[in-house]
Amino acid sequence: MKPKIFIDGSEGTTGLRIHERFAERDDIELLTISAELRKDTAERKRLINESDITFLCLPDAAAREAVSLVENENVRIIDTSTAHRTEAGWAYGFPELSEKHRTAIKNGKRIAVPGCHATGFISTVYPLVAGGILPADYPISAFSLTGYSGGGKKMIAEYEGEGRNKDLDAPREYALTQQHKHLKEMKAITGLSRAPLFSPIVADYYSGMVVSVPIHTEFLKKCKTPAELTAFFSDFYKGEKFVDVVQNTENLYGGMLAGNTLSGWDGLKIYVTGNEERVIVSAQFDNLGKGASGAAVQCMNIVLGCDEATGLVL
Q: Which of 57, 116, 223, 299 is flagged as catalytic?
């Protein structure tokens, strides 16, 4: 019998991308909800409890409400919102971090998919802290360039509408109060003793992102050159299909990293650039791929015991 899958919030950008990834799959049964009942609590409750796995592609408050509707103890929840990423009892949906993370996803009834900015930050900082290279009390900073689809339907409409504000023609820095909603998981999952200084930037392209972490090598305990750090990340992510550590950064187009290069791809690339005094570790990926929908489907594949890349673009 095919596992029954329900997407609660199927009309948002994350839900729509998950639908796209399911288009060619015949190993699952997708439960659908009629358009007029998308916000009907009773109908959503029925479908959630009829499913084997429910994806939550909802705002935080709605995601918490959806979890409260679960009565069938066999239902597994994969939540793409911020609501449960640091909650006890929830597996953090980043299997490449450790075998412990992958096992928790495999056996978990409740799985929280990482945030997009957090994915890039954690993919670079977690290994450094766990590997004893970067001190947990290092005053770290990061900046992130993302496409406007990360802002959801409202921001997409703003960017793609006629007569839009001229400010949208240029990249825009936001979260200026240092209260971005991903900071909590960025600190908690990596084991840092303080939240990073974080500067996200949204630009006029649809999807894709680059998250970069600058580091003074004098504060590293080992691996103090770009070559040594590249070798470290290559070993850390050895055998992982979704993470590619780039060995040669000299062939980048124009010597630059573009935010939209991996749009539509479900993996993530890591680059180490700089020199023996200052390095920048960058993660490049699609905010709707490894940063959202792709990661959610990967988690589902782990739960189902099939190849993690099934239905995904790698």
A: 116
Give 169-178's long-range contacts (Cβ < 8 A, gap of 24+).
169/204, 170/203, 170/204, 171/145, 171/201, 171/202, 171/203, 171/204, 172/201, 172/202, 172/203, 173/199, 173/200, 173/201, 174/200, 174/201, 174/202, 175/199, 175/200
Amino acid letter, 127: P
Element (H, E) at 13: helix 13-22
d(CA 286, CA 248): 21
Q: Residue 77 has which token pair?
A: 């929840």
Hey, which residues does 55 pair with through a beta bridge?
7, 78
- What is the rounded distance in angstroms from the CA atom of residue 95 to the CA atom of residue 101? 5
Measured between alpha carbons, how far is 187 from 202 in angstroms, rounded to an integer? 22
In 3D space, the residue among 282, 303, 305, 301 whose CA is nearest the CA of residue 293 turns out to be: 301
Residue closest to 287 by CA, chosen among 56, 97, 115, 141: 115
- Rounded Cα distance, 20 and 22, in Å: 5
Sort 297 into a burial class: Cβ within 10 Å, 0-12 / 13-18 / 19+: buried
Q: What is the pLDDT along the chain (314 residues), one digit of tens a residue?
A: 899 999 999 889 999 999 999 999 999 999 999 989 988 999 999 999 999 999 999 999 999 999 999 999 999 999 999 999 999 999 999 999 999 999 999 999 999 999 999 999 999 999 999 999 999 999 999 999 999 999 999 999 999 999 999 999 999 999 999 999 999 999 999 999 999 999 999 999 999 999 999 999 999 999 999 999 999 999 999 999 999 999 998 888 899 999 999 999 999 999 999 999 999 999 999 999 999 999 999 999 999 999 999 999 99
Active site residue 299: no
For residues 111 and 93, the answer to whether their CB atoms sit within 8 Å is yes
Within 10 angstroms of residue 207's Cβ, the number of other Cβ atoms is: 24
In 10 A of CB 205, how many CB atoms?
Answer: 18
